[in-house]
Specification:
About 10% of the residues lie in helices and about 45% in strands. The protein has a five-stranded antiparallel β-sheet with strand order 1-2-9-4-7, covered by helices on one side. Bound molecules: fe (ii) ion.
Length: about 160
């Protein structure tokens, strides 16, 4: 974890607990996960005063770009399958990606400055539940080029998702 991930451990831990509870209670979702080979499927499950929860599905090979969360902290929980998270770390030749694998039941809390990419590198579909606090308003997508993060695009709630 980076120092920024520790900015408010109580707050991030609370988001993780909310994600764990929601992931363990599919009857509360009000929607059944679907898989879409043309575009990753996602649905917002609920929004509360200071957070929101989304359900995401991942066919083998489906992924996000590197992205931040516009200043929101959050957590994701693997409902089923396996996902790989790639995060940015300083290396000898500049920034480089480091991979961590998560399987069903794992939870991954993250701070407000977290940048990551999520990919399903497995041969099976995966389902994950994500909580963000506060609710997402903006996400910047990046690519890693020559050891540095370059902005690809800024996506905004209500427009991009
Ligand atoms: Fe994310």
């Amino acid at each position: 974890m980076s120092a920024l991930d520790l900015e408010a451990p109580g707050r991030v831990g609370r988001l993780r607990d909310i994600a764990r509870r929601a992931a363990a209670d599919p009857a509360s979702w009000g929607v059944s996960p679907r898989f879409d080979a043309t575009a990753r499927w996602y649905a917002r499950l609920f929004a509360a005063g200071d957070h929101e929860a989304w359900l995401l599905t991942w066919l083998p090979g489906q992924s996000t770009d590197l992205h931040d969360h516009g200043g929101s902290a959050g957590a994701f929980v693997l409902v089923s399958g396996a996902l790989t998270e790639e995060t940015v770390h300083a290396g000898a030749d500049g920034a480089a990606l480091r991979s961590t694998s998560f399987t069903a039941g794992d939870a991954r809390p993250f701070g407000s400055q977290h940048v990551h990419r999520i990919v399903n590198t497995s041969a099976e579909p995966a389902v994950s539940l994500h909580v963000y606090g506060p609710a997402l308003t903006r996400m910047t997508r990046y690519r890693l080029q020559d050891g540095a993060l370059r902005v690809l695009e800024i996506d905004r709630a209500g427009v991009a998702w």
